[in-house]
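pasting for ref. prot 1 ->
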Amino acid sequence: METKGLKILIHASAFFAPFLVPVAIYILTFFVELDEQIKRLSIQALLFQLVMGALIVVSTIFSFILIGIPFLIGFIIMTIVIPIIAIIKTLQDEPYNYPIVGRWF
């Protein structure tokens, strides 16, 4: 299987199915022999989306007392920009680890 295409799909899924695609590809790694990096990347992408979702929820709650607004803006920008950077790195055949959760796996 084309690993570069799967890596791009995992990164790009942040824009259309941020939880479904990484989980599906992770499960697929048990049935189809794929690179270990694909398995690690799908876990990282899923964890990144979960962490960013939690941070955005907390920032939204704190926005009612105004302290969360800068964090909310920053986390939303990160949720959009980080997958784009990951796609660019993958197209250049460079390894990429997600910030915050990248070194966990």
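and prot 2 ->
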Amino acid sequence: MGGISIIIESDDFDKVFKRLKPIFDFEPSELMTGIASLGESQTRRRISEEKTAPDGSAWKPNNEGTSILLQTGQHLLQSIASEASSDMAEWGATWEHAHVHQDGMTIVPKNAKKLIFKIGGKTVGASKVTIPARPFVGLSSDNEAEIEELIIDVLGGSLQ
């Protein structure tokens, strides 16, 4: 069971309640927008710079040796978006093929015996292609710490 407990040991309840009033009157929309924006930023950083899954494991290199998840342009990176309201913060990718990279997938031909594609300018055929999972959406322990700092900053500012 989670939650917040406040123990008050004071003879001056008026002073205590005056100090706690900002928490009771707190409007969470701004905080949730901050969390969503931070999550979006963390995800963009993971794709463009860190090249690791939220658990810290390195992504498997691609066959061409190009920048992972940026090989075919900026589709994935440009699709990273966030949304927030007073009771939720979410972020992720809107690109229709993002799930392939997040979860991995095996692709087989639909109407032919082989898939035909190019690797390093060379035409290659294969009966199937397995794209390894390269999770980019999620929270690392560092990401969680950044979000906790934001929450403390916002709520701590309410108590000043």
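The beta strands are 80-85, 88-93, 105-107, 115-119, 122-126, 129-131.
The first helix runs from residue 13 to 24.
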